[in-house]
Design goal:
The chain is an alpha+beta fold. It has two helices and eleven strands. 17% of the residues lie in helices and 36% in strands. The chain has a four-stranded mixed β-sheet. Strands 1-2-5 form a three-stranded antiparallel β-sheet, with no helix packed on it. Strands 3-4 form a two-stranded antiparallel sheet. α2 links the parallel β9 and β10. α1 packs across α2.
Length: 155
């Protein structure tokens, strides 16, 4: 099961630290290492617990959304998740850039938008509003990409 990696010392002689929360999400892998070692192994990091946001009582990680978006060849790599307050509760808006290869046919765009919405709802259990935008529309930043914009904090 995926959870937060927490390091705990067994002997406080070398390191006077009882617990260290890494905020990295991972899981233990079963079985021995192919190299022959028998120690416990952990999987690649799945994301960070402090990246999580809550919409309509559901915990959502940006990596869940990115995983679904990367399944579509019609999409470029740029996306932005915006959480905004509404009268009916919080709304999750996912803006995604189209790749250069995609046509401007309205019915194809609408079918793609519906398919992405369905895929995201199946993954995160909340129906987001999906907006398809032209490549280069979503602003780029230096360093780590800003993928989540939470407008609830501004209210």
């Amino acid at each position: 099961e995926i959870g937060e990696l927490v390091l705990t010392t067994l002997d406080r002689t070398a390191m006077p630290l009882l617990r260290y929360r890494t905020r990295d999400l991972t899981r233990f892998l079963k079985g021995d290492c192919p190299c022959g070692r028998t120690h416990r192994r952990i999987d690649r990091m799945k994301g960070r617990s402090d990246d999580m946001f809550i919409v309509k009582g559901v915990n959502i990680f940006p990596m869940q959304i990115e995983k679904q978006l990367m399944k579509y060849d019609q999409l470029a790599s740029g996306y932005m998740i915006t959480i905004q307050p509404t009268m009916a509760g919080d709304e999750n808006v996912v803006e995604v850039e189209l790749s250069d290869l995609f046509s401007d046919d309205y019915s194809e765009l609408e079918n793609l938008r519906k398919s992405i919405t369905r895929s995201l709802k199946d993954e995160i259990l909340v129906t987001p509003r999906v907006k398809l935008v032209q490549k280069g529309t979503i602003p780029r930043t230096e360093g780590k990409a800003v993928r989540v914009k939470d407008l609830r904090k501004l209210m």
